[in-house]
């Protein structure tokens, strides 16, 4: 379980492919602290640390993960957001994030507001019920509040600290981003789908 509060950024140093899997060597300030089998969020994708050496750590993504995320777009020197799992005695500064990406979205507009930035994100209509005005979303592993919600589009505003300390600065029009919707909304949607009497 994560919070969507990015701790550091990492850089992809090497990518190899084995069958339908892709393996990534990631260099980050936190890499030397990682332990084998530890779960770490990489731009919103929960991946297991397999090896640690020389200031880097190695993770592997299977076909299921590659199909539902933007990991296929990662190349050498790509910047990724890094967050360790929430400790039991920690504060929940963002919202509950599982690291299980639901789908990808596309940045359709990026606006410099002279002190902040706004990103308009388009996503598949099938997830429309999970996005609400002033609700939470995980975008590339960053906990953000959505506004200006349309059927298959929403806007997020980025403060300078987040812009300079995460990979959001590299997102531009046409960029594909990882989206994880609020788990509470997903449980409510599932409950309603199984109880016809609750449907409007």
TrEMBL record:
<dbReference type="Pfam" id="PF00677">
    <property type="entry name" value="Lum_binding"/>
</dbReference>
<protein>
    <recommendedName>
        <fullName>Riboflavin synthase</fullName>
        <ecNumber>2.5.1.9</ecNumber>
    </recommendedName>
</protein>
<feature type="repeat" description="Lumazine-binding">
    <location>
        <begin position="1"/>
        <end position="95"/>
    </location>
</feature>
<dbReference type="InterPro" id="IPR001783">
    <property type="entry name" value="Lumazine-bd"/>
</dbReference>
<feature type="domain" description="Lumazine-binding">
    <location>
        <begin position="1"/>
        <end position="95"/>
    </location>
</feature>
<feature type="domain" description="Lumazine-binding">
    <location>
        <begin position="96"/>
        <end position="192"/>
    </location>
</feature>
<dbReference type="InterPro" id="IPR026017">
    <property type="entry name" value="Lumazine-bd_dom"/>
</dbReference>
<dbReference type="GO" id="GO:0004746">
    <property type="term" value="F:riboflavin synthase activity"/>
</dbReference>
<comment type="function">
    <text>Catalyzes the dismutation of two molecules of 6,7-dimethyl-8-ribityllumazine, resulting in the formation of riboflavin and 5-amino-6-(D-ribitylamino)uracil.</text>
</comment>
<keyword id="KW-0686">Riboflavin biosynthesis</keyword>
<dbReference type="InterPro" id="IPR017938">
    <property type="entry name" value="Riboflavin_synthase-like_b-brl"/>
</dbReference>
<keyword id="KW-0677">Repeat</keyword>
<keyword id="KW-0808">Transferase</keyword>
<feature type="repeat" description="Lumazine-binding">
    <location>
        <begin position="96"/>
        <end position="192"/>
    </location>
</feature>
<comment type="pathway">
    <text>Cofactor biosynthesis; riboflavin biosynthesis; riboflavin from 2-hydroxy-3-oxobutyl phosphate and 5-amino-6-(D-ribitylamino)uracil: step 2/2.</text>
</comment>
<dbReference type="InterPro" id="IPR023366">
    <property type="entry name" value="ATP_synth_asu-like_sf"/>
</dbReference>
